[in-house]
Design brief:
binds flavin-adenine dinucleotide, alpha/beta, single chain, FAD/NAD(P)-binding domain, 5-stranded parallel β-sheet
């Protein structure tokens, strides 16, 4: 059965089983081992692609509810109108057609680690030999935070479009208020980048407006000199940065935010980024072991410390590596390699390395960057930043801004094409 007829077959079976209300167990198309990957973001799409690229005989199934992936990376440039959502949207066609990944558009509602099966919302049940979970993050909003009215825009797509439209409709002289959750959260420089991009946009388009940044952390977490300089100098009189501010509640109709340490603040546009934890499926599968929020994994294979044959990569894993797309792509390759070795009766590679890169626009034509390399440390049996590795830009420049497009194109290409 070819990929598309198999997909139709699965769809039909899914519908039929839902009606008959008993699960159909879908076996892999051929007799080889089956690896199921859940989540088609930077972690999952890369893992599915490289599993097939390196081991074409494997049955690899990617399950993702959305037909296309909308990237959070570069999404701050949708807010200031420099990019359209289409320019950061990617299909799974290449994964299916070029590499032979079976792509199923569905939601994984349950994992049974004992019988090695996943259940889908359509009612279908699939067996796996190895399962890779890459579901990204879930948000833990504070009291009163209605995500349909006050976007976090920390996932791309509708949330980003909503915030962009609210900014466009904001009056000149208005107040934009945003919050930054306590670390760890997705993309350490991302919120500081957002504050700069929006300040720059308001400076040109909505004169007299303010950007109030409420940061739950003790200080600017990364690239402090660059973002601090941007807040204090480039956007002096526009950005008001407050550290150690914990949000306690949000009035989503009146756009008022309450904090532990300041008086209530009224916004014209409110952007609250909630605290985050591993994807829902990680929690329901019982894989959370790190700080009550993340999945503990073996640092060589990303195999869960709780359930055998289940691996966790990307933002949901709790190794201490940053929660970012570039490194999720890197972790995915380490994990795919380990899964292939394990399925062949071997051991994971003993000295894997991963790397991270974040480019941050600071205005409409300048950007900064931050990189780091991570490696397995046998003394502590953990993943550690390699001493002396990586670095960051010394200033925000036009050249960095241009490089940012080269870097992102290459990451998007390596993940989705
Ligand atoms: C403004 C901004 C700027 C950023 N800039 C950078 C940057 O410069 N560099 C960088 O490296 N990173 C950056 N990031 C971070 C990066 O986007 C994330 O870290 C990355 O997307 C994480 O990849 P992931 O695969 O773990 O999760 P995701 O990309 O969120 O993908 C998870 C996927 O899993 C699917 N899923 C979830 N649950 C299920 C389920 N039960 N069944 C089936 N599918 C499921 C979801 O639909 C989703 O498509 C930025 C983020 C933001 C918000």
């Amino acid at each position: 059965m070819n990929t598309s007829s198999r997909r139709n077959f699965l769809k039909a079976l899914g519908g039929a089983t839902a009606l008959a209300s008993f699960p159909t167990i879908l076996k892999a198309a051929t007799t080889g081992p089956r690896v199921i990957v859940v989540g088609g973001g930077f972690g999952g799409a890369t893992a599915a692609k490289y599993l097939k690229h390196w081991s074409p005989d494997l049955n690899v199934t990617l399950i993702e509810p959305k037909a296309k992936y909308q990237s959070p990376i570069m999404s701050n440039l949708v807010l200031n109108g420099q990019l359209s959502m289409d320019q950061i949207t990617f299909s799974y066609d290449a994964l299916a057609q070029k590499y032979g990944v079976e792509v199923i558009t569905d939601w994984v509602s349950g994992v049974d680690g004992v019988t090695q099966k996943v259940s889908l919302s359509s009612g279908a049940v699939l067996e796996y030999d190895r399962l890779i979970l890459a579901p990204g993050i879930t948000f833990n909003p504070v009291e009163g935070h209605d995500l349909d009215k006050v976007p976090h825009a920390w996932q791309s797509g509708e949330q980003v479009t909503m915030l962009q439209q609210q900014l466009e409709a904001m009056p000149a002289g208005g107040t934009f208020v945003m919050s930054i959750p306590a670390a760890p959260y997705r993309c350490p420089p991302g919120p500081y980048e957002r504050a700069c991009v929006i300040a720059d946009y308001l400076k040109s388009n909505k004169p007299g407006s303010k950007v109030i940044v409420l940061d739950a952390n003790a200080d600017i977490l990364v690239e402090k000199e660059i973002f601090g300089h941007a807040f204090d100098t480039t956007y002096a009189g526009i950005v008001e940065y407050h550290k150690e501010v914990v949000i306690t509640g949000v009035d989503s109709d009146q756009l008022v935010v309450s904090t532990e340490s300041m008086s209530d603040i009224k916004a014209d546009v409110l952007n609250i980024i909630p605290e985050q934890s591993a994807g829902e499926i990680i929690k329901s599968a019982g894989l959370i072991t790190v700080a009550d929020r993340w999945a503990g994994v073996n640092p060589l294979s990303y195999e869960s410390t709780m359930v055998n044959n289940i691996h966790v990569i990307g933002d949901s894993q709790g190794t201490g590596q940053p929660k970012a797309g570039h490194i999720a792509n890197s972790e995915a390759k380490v994990c795919a390699d380990a899964v292939i070795r394990l399925l062949n009766g071997g051991l994971p590679y003993a000295a894997p390395m991963t790397n991270s890169a974040c480019y941050s626009p600071v205005s409409a034509d300048t950007a900064t960057w931050l990189t780091a390399v991570y490696g397995y440390d046998s003394a502590t049996d953990s993943i550690q930043k390699v001493a002396g590795s990586g670095g960051s830009a010394s200033t925000a420049t036009k050249n960095n801004y241009e490089e940012m497009f080269v870097w992102s194109k290459s990451l998007f290409g390596d993940t989705f094409s």
